[in-house]
Amino acid sequence: MQWLKSPKISEIQKYVECYWFLEKKETNGPFQTPKLNPDPSGHLMISPETQPYSYTLGEHEFLGKGCHWIFPHLNTFQLDHSNPFVYIGIKFRVGALYAIEIPGLVHPQLNEIASTLVIENSHATQIIDLARTRPDDCVDRLDSLLSPWLIGIQQDKHCLLTNRALQVLNDIDISKIGESIHCSQRTLERSFRKVTGFTMKQCKVMNKLEAMLEQIYKLDGSEINWAEIALEFGFSDQPHLIRHLREQIGLTPKVYSEERGLTIDAYGGIESF
What we know:
Blueprint: E1 2-5, H1 10-13, E2 16-24, E3 35-36, E4 43-46, E5 52-57, E6 60-65, E7 68-70, E8 77-79, E9 85-92, H2 96-99, E10 113-115, H3 121-133, H4 135-150, H5 157-168, H6 177-180, H7 185-196, H8 200-217, H9 226-232, H10 238-249, H11 253-259, H12 263-267
Antiparallel strand pairs: 1-2, 2-9, 3-8, 4-7, 4-9, 5-6, 5-8, 7-10
């Protein structure tokens, strides 16, 4: 079972892109250890207090139980989804965690998974029950939960500059963004990194990767024309695309088309966690 919905309160929509729900009940089947591709957004994961989680990044393994944060990450995590699980995800907009005052949260934290006590275990159980049976009521409950954090936030100058840059990041050349929003490029780059933890180039690369993977997901392996994909997404040639995918997800296009082992392949419309 799964769903994805937007917050209903406009003030919360400024900081939260979506809420999503995903439950896996079986223990067998493919995609026991899917990969989580790089993501400039942070996610708050709501799950039962006894449910374990496991994320592997190189030789580093993040283990724990219950609710936790997935902070923005440049690297690909390996997940252990061999056992049944249930999650509600709160996907924050890029840079949102910088502006939000959450106890114990240091801004920004990158490439990290961290347990959280932000949500009481009894509340998490109630929210999960709503997600299973009454998704719209679950959205209302999540809006209510986040309101004390998100309504009435005063954004500083770094947030305001970064938000303006994010609006045009995918549409124009990075070197021209400062000029387009009437700011020096150097000042903009400093503010953007301060708020998001990334350079604008890194963020744009992750956005392009997500869009490309979403398109590839809709195609069967035999339908994928990598030369056409390279052209459509602005790569100079197919070897450039091959290098890019190897750097971003650790796989060549050929291996990826055979394995299809990312979270988007496993769970479809759920947006990359």
